[in-house]
Design a protein that fits this description.
The chain has 2 helices and 4 strands, in the order αββββα. With about 70 residues, it is an alpha+beta fold. The chain has one domain: N-terminal domain of TfIIb, CATH 2.20.25. A 4-stranded antiparallel beta sheet has the order 1-2-3-4. Bound molecules: zinc ion. The site of zinc ion has 8 residues, from loops.
Length: about 70
């Protein structure tokens, strides 16, 4: 399990300079930005907060996000 206190501190790296960039945990292993909709995977309990990863999954519906997420490319 990922530390919940850590998750509460994380923000979307693409949004944080201009908006709150709050993240919502989806399907346990995904963090979805409530501002831009980028989706960040939690791979082996480590949130992958890379904008390139967020972009990669942005258009994937929450229901179609793979669990567990694949490793970042
Ligand atoms: Zn965002």
């Amino acid at each position: 399990m990922v530390n919940q206190e850590l998750l509460e501190l994380l923000r979307c790296p693409a949004c944080v300079k201009t908006s709150p960039g709050m993240l919502e945990q989806v399907r346990e292993v995904w963090l979805v930005c409530t501002d831009c909709g980028r989706k960040y995977p939690i791979v082996e309990d480590i949130p992958v907060m890379l904008i390139s990863e967020g972009d990669r999954w942005k258009s994937t519906p929450n229901a179609d996000l793979p669990v567990p997420p694949p490793r970042p490319q």
